[in-house]
Design goal:
alpha/beta, TIM Barrel, globular, binds 3-methyl-2-oxobutanoic acid
């Protein structure tokens, strides 16, 4: 689904088709145009503008302070990359908890002002009327169960959910109810792998896991975790597919040392006093 290729945009029906075909897919978070453009070149089918934004970009300790304006600002940046991916935007804490009417107003703003495709919200039975209202208004909705970071206070911290048999049964029911209400997919965060498999079997729509084992339909990772940008330690479910923090430290340290020693910039990195043949930014230096 490269922005340079012939592919059309991913739709919610494509995810259902992937599930039906038994093909696992990925979702990756992005918060800016650069990341979204890269993910699109790599045919990542779903981009999530997650409210993890608050923690990995904005420097908050939780996702709770993130505002609807923050989400729209970053969703607009992602959409400027014109990705072919399905772009899902988190409704942040405080923008839908009052009920369907508030959720609809918030979701309409996200879709209208950013051009993104869908919204995600956290919760089970409690948000079913809200999911119904958004879907009835034509807005695709992704659910989110298990460790729901917007309820971190109520959950007593960022911890694995669904170990208690009653909680596990409720999670299965919640996933079924979200799908029946019209959600097109559900994120399962930080739950035991066996429970995730049960939830996936019960869910009428694709499940996307993070810390939920392998028996789900798709996997999501946060950009900064996937690329090794954070200071660590990482949660158990993170696999760093690159060590960009280490690369950045080496690069900036070398830049600082090169400037101190006078080896940067070199003559070939410097504009001369002669005819303006090489003045265009990015022009070959030779
Ligand atoms: O905000 C986010 O990035 C998320 C993912 C962890 C699923 O909700």
């Amino acid at each position: 689904m490269s922005s340079h290729g012939p592919h059309r945009r991913t739709t919610i029906h494509d995810l259902a088709a992937l599930r039906a075909a038994g093909e696992r897919f990925v979702m990756v978070t992005a918060y800016d145009a650069n990341a979204a453009g890269l993910l699109d070149e790599l045919d990542v089918p779903v981009i999530l503008v997650g409210d993890s934004l608050g923690m990995v970009v904005l420097g908050h300790e939780t996702t709770l302070p993130v505002t609807l304006d923050d989400m729209i600002h970053h969703a607009r940046a992602v959409m400027r990359a014109r990705p072919r991916a399905l772009v899902v935007v988190d409704l942040p804490f405080g923008s839908y908890q009052q009920g369907p009417e508030q959720a609809l107003a918030s979701a309409v703003r996200v879709i209208k002002e950013s051009g993104a495709d869908a919204v995600k919200l956290e919760g089970g039975a409690r948000v079913v009327p809200t999911v119904r209202a958004l879907v009835a208004a034509g807005i695709p909705v992704m659910g989110h169960l298990g460790l729901t970071p917007q309820s971190v206070g109520q959950l007593g911290g960022f911890r694995v959910q669904g170990r208690d048999p009653d909680d596990a049964a409720a999670l299965v029911d919640d996933a079924r109810a979200l799908g029946d209400a019209g959600a097109f997919a559900t994120v399962l965060e930080c739950i035991p792998a066996g429970l995730a498999a049960r939830v996936t079997a019960a869910s009428p729509v694709p499940t996307i896991g993070i810390g939920a084992g392998a028996d789900v339909d798709g996997q999501v990772l946060v950009w900064h975790d996937l690329l090794g940008l954070g200071p660590g330690p990482d949660p158990r479910f993170v696999r760093r597919y690159a060590q960009l923090r280490t690369s950045i430290i080496a690069a900036v340290t070398t830049f600082r040392d090169d400037v101190a020693s006078g080896t940067f910039p070199a003559p070939e990195e410097t504009y001369g006093d002669g005819p303006a043949v090489d003045d265009a930014p990015g022009a070959p230096s030779a």
